[in-house]
Amino acid sequence: QVQLVESGGGLVQAGGSLRLSCAASTTIFSISTMGWFRQAPGNQRELVARITTSNSQTYADSVKGRFTISRDNAKKTTYLQMNSLKPEDTAVYYCNLKWVGNDYWGQGTQVTVSS
Questions:
Q1: Sign of CA dihedral 82, 37, 30, 59
Q2: How far apart are CA 72 and CA 39, in angstroms?
Q3: Can you spell out the DSSP letters for 25-83?
Q4: How far is Cα of residue 24 from the mean position of the Cα atoms in its chain?
Q5: Helix, strand or coil for residue 61?
Q6: What pLDDT, on a 0 to 100 scale, did the predictor assign at position 10?
Q7: If pLDDT is split at 50, 70 and 90, which confidence band does 1 have?
Q8: Pairing status of strand 91-99 against strand 109-114
Q9: Partners of 82 in the beta sheet?
Q10: Is the dihedral of CA 30, 109, 69, 39 positive or negative?
């Protein structure tokens, strides 16, 4: 059983920062790739950032240089530090755990950036 719980979303002004957290209740956290996705109204869910078991990181072009993904295997938690936020970053952000072809999702946390 894999459970992912996101936190840290909210309302912030453009240029501000937020840090999202995703706490996992599973023994496979340290051997899984973790990711953050987002979905804005009327849009498809898109990859924001991903971090592998060896800490290799991938970012969407739209967030490179502004967002940083990290993980703490001891705490079974992954983070997304979001700086210089823009109104177009407004979306529901979802935590994802990928392990041997299986995908698990959190319930999502709303991020709203006002201009």
A1: negative
A2: 25
A3: -STTGGGSEEEEEEE-TTS--EEEEEE-TT--EEE-TTTTTTEEEEEETTTTEEEEEE-
A4: 13
A5: coil
A6: 98
A7: confident
A8: antiparallel
A9: 18, 67
A10: positive
